[in-house]
Amino acid sequence: LTGGLEAAWTKLKGEEVLTKENIVEPMRDIRRALLEADVSLPVVRRFVQAVSDQAVGVGLIRGVKPDQQLVKIVHDELVKLMGGEVSELVFSKSAPTVILLAGLQGVGKTTVCAKLANYLKKQGKSCMLIAGDVYRPAAIDQLVILGEQVGVPVYTAGTEVKPSEIAKQGLEEAKKKKMDVVIMDTAGRLQIDKGMMDELKEVKKVLNPTEVLLVVDAMTGQEAAALVTTFNVEIGITGAILTKLDGDSRGGAALSVKEVSGKPIKLVGRGERMEDLEPFYPDRMAGRILGMGDVLSFVEKAQEVMRQEDAEELQKKIMSAKFDFNDFLKQTRAVARMGSMTRVIGMIPGMGKVTPAQVREAEKNLKLMESMIEAMTPEEREKPELLAESPQRRKRIAQDSGKTEQQVSQLVAQLFQMRVRMKNLMGIMEGGSIPTLSN
Ligand code: GDP
Ligand code: MG
What we know:
Family: Belongs to the GTP-binding SRP family. SRP54 subfamily.
Low-confidence stretches: 339-354, 427-432
GO cellular component, one term: signal recognition particle, endoplasmic reticulum targeting
Protein name: signal-recognition-particle GTPase
Largest sheet: 8 strands, mixed
Oligomer: single chain
Bound molecules: guanosine-5'-diphosphate, magnesium ion
GO biological process, one term: SRP-dependent cotranslational protein targeting to membrane
Order of helices and strands: HHHHEHEHEHEHEHEHEEHHHHHHHHH
Enzyme class: hydrolase
């Protein structure tokens, strides 16, 4: 999916703004990438429509390029598509909270049972597992072994007892032991069949669970969303757990489940180890899909650090050659704050030609400059000319900040050079003059 989407951004290079016309091609790429990731067609259609609507006529943020802007819009829509917020597990007011797991054979139910117990145990909750897969003796052994591994008790009643009866006995046992949570493993089938559904319905009736979670394999793509829908209609579920996200799944399942079934993905499995279970974070998933974390945080920071008004005010100052030490400090701080994001340079007026190496230099120099600027009087900060004219003032600043007079002189010279460079870059040809510092 990531690779497919990259083509979309590339096509916007060199564009000034997002328009109805220039997003046609990128949107086609996005559509294709989603379909290739096995997202269902109706979901893709709605998604593409939503992104297009937003992209056209979006206010441009200073310094943010259209391709970066589009990445951000796609990201935010992906997050929305996956349900927006993290969908937390619900716990019942009176213990024990009962969690019933369902799903086809081989998707990872039994593994999830133990992983989930391990996960909840780390949150300080006592857990018990109930072995409800009566069709394969090996399934019970598997759960017992995993239970031992994570240190939680497993209730078993062999293969001769009906699952609903095991559920009843297990629940009583959990109440007796004052467990916080009880998780029931059930038998899967290769395909959906009536026997499995009836069995689950019966077990559900007995347990009255707080959570009924359908375990689905991420590798099944859009089929996963269909399964969640079917199980929800048949037995009523509260959410899904997506397993095997560590494999080479194409991501379609994660994208479609919520939109198609209306039920959220609550947890994801990313491996065979007991620790490999985590909450499903739509924003992290979107970030992973796009593989462009740097661009996303850049756009966010750009929005935050350099709001349009700030930039305009700065521009006005530059135009009128009023750029002073206060602005100098503000700008240098902004650059430092943005850290290694060298792309940011393009958005600071007048710093268009600065290289990444210079940014690092700026970060290094920030402390040095701050101490000298702090030693200036407010008047001196606003009128750098005062410092150009007066060696006495420069000497005083050097003493107060613990720097050399030469360093202070350099700073003053730097400010005037910056004024000129900025004016030139703003296209004002008369520029300003760099005063010679008097001795
Ligand atoms: P069940 O039939 O639904 O109970 O499935 P199991 O829990 O027995 O798991 C089937 C296989 O999938 C086992 O070999 C597990 O180790 C493996 N498995 C389960 N979850 C994951 C996961 O998140 N990632 C990977 N790579 N393998 C998993
Ligand atoms: Mg199993």
